[in-house]
């Protein structure tokens, strides 16, 4: 199951995502073909200030989770800046007491010159946290786990920004679990998210300025959500 953390941090993150235009309410056709009443696009964290703040949220969620880790791994491509920025945020976090966290990432195409290969950064060893924006099909997690295990290291957790808490499949044959739950079960490791659909709904409940979207999001969760 996904790891829990403080709701205050999660709600702060939901507000931050809204302010940055990363989280929006309305009517959006998503990758699955569904019409979603909200849309979360972490690619819109695209400035130094916003990515720096995002990385602080990642670092806090990881430390709050209690997961033991030695380094970060960012799957290409979105995971590359996320792992880099989060390593910087962890290095400056008071709870780390000056500890320095290595990171690595993969490139999609093998390099045939210089150091060669598909891995860049620190050598993969110890307990490795995979960092990405969201989990949809789980393909990037599977590839990351294979890379980490092949290096003799241990996948320790997956760290993501948003858990949509959503079942996959066509409306008449929905999966029993969400992609996040499937990843946690398949690989026997926690999935830590900064925030989830529950936190979005908590904001809609508490903030009157977003009240008009509450029913649509609740209906979507009733139809597609996991408990």
UniProtKB/TrEMBL annotation:
The keyword ATP-binding does not apply. Pfam families: Pribosyltran. Its EC number is 2.4.2.10. It is an enzyme of class 2 (transferase). GO terms for molecular function: magnesium ion binding; orotate phosphoribosyltransferase activity. Coiled coil: none annotated. InterPro entries: OPRT (IPR023031), Or_phspho_trans_dom (IPR004467), PRTase-like (IPR029057), PRTase_dom (IPR000836). It comes from the Bacteria. Pathway: Pyrimidine metabolism; UMP biosynthesis via de novo pathway; UMP from orotate: step 1/2. GO terms for biological process: 'de novo' pyrimidine nucleobase biosynthetic process; 'de novo' UMP biosynthetic process; pyrimidine ribonucleoside biosynthetic process. It catalyses: orotidine 5'-phosphate + diphosphate = orotate + 5-phospho-alpha-D-ribose 1-diphosphate. 5-phospho-alpha-D-ribose 1-diphosphate binds at residues 31, 77-78, 107-108, 111, 113, 132-140. Residues 54-173 form the Phosphoribosyltransferase domain. Transmembrane segments: none annotated. Keywords: Glycosyltransferase, Magnesium, Pyrimidine biosynthesis, Transferase. One of its GO terms (cellular component) is cytoplasm. Orotate binds at residues 39-40, 136, 164. Its cofactor is Mg(2+). Homodimer. Catalyzes the transfer of a ribosyl phosphate group from 5-phosphoribose 1-diphosphate to orotate, leading to the formation of orotidine monophosphate (OMP). This is Orotate phosphoribosyltransferase. It comes from Achromobacter anxifer.
């Amino acid at each position: 199951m996904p790891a829990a953390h403080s709701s205050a941090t999660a709600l702060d993150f939901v507000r931050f995502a809204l302010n940055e235009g990363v989280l929006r309410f309305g009517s959006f056709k998503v990758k699955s073909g569904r019409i979603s009443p909200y849309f979360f696009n972490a690619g819109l964290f695209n400035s130094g200030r916003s990515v720096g703040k995002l990385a602080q949220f990642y670092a806090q969620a990881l430390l709050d989770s209690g997961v033991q880790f030695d380094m970060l791994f960012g799957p290409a491509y979105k995971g590359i800046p996320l792992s880099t920025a989060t390593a910087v945020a962890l290095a400056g976090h008071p709870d780390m007491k000056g500890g320095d966290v290595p990171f690595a990432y993969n490139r999609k195409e093998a390099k045939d010159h210089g150091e060669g290969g598909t891995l860049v950064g620190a050598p993969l060893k110890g307990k490795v946290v995979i960092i990405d924006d969201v989990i949809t099909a789980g393909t990037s997690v599977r590839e990351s786990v294979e890379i980490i295990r092949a290096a003799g290291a241990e996948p320790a957790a997956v760290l993501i920004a948003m858990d949509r808490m959503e079942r996959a499949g066509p409306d008449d044959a929905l999966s029993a679990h969400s992609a996040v739950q499937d990843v946690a079960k398949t690989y026997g490791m926690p999935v830590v998210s900064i925030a989830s659909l529950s936190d979005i709904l908590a904001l809609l409940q508490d903030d009157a300025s977003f009240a008009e979207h509450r029913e649509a999001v609740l209906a979507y969760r009733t139809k597609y959500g996991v408990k």
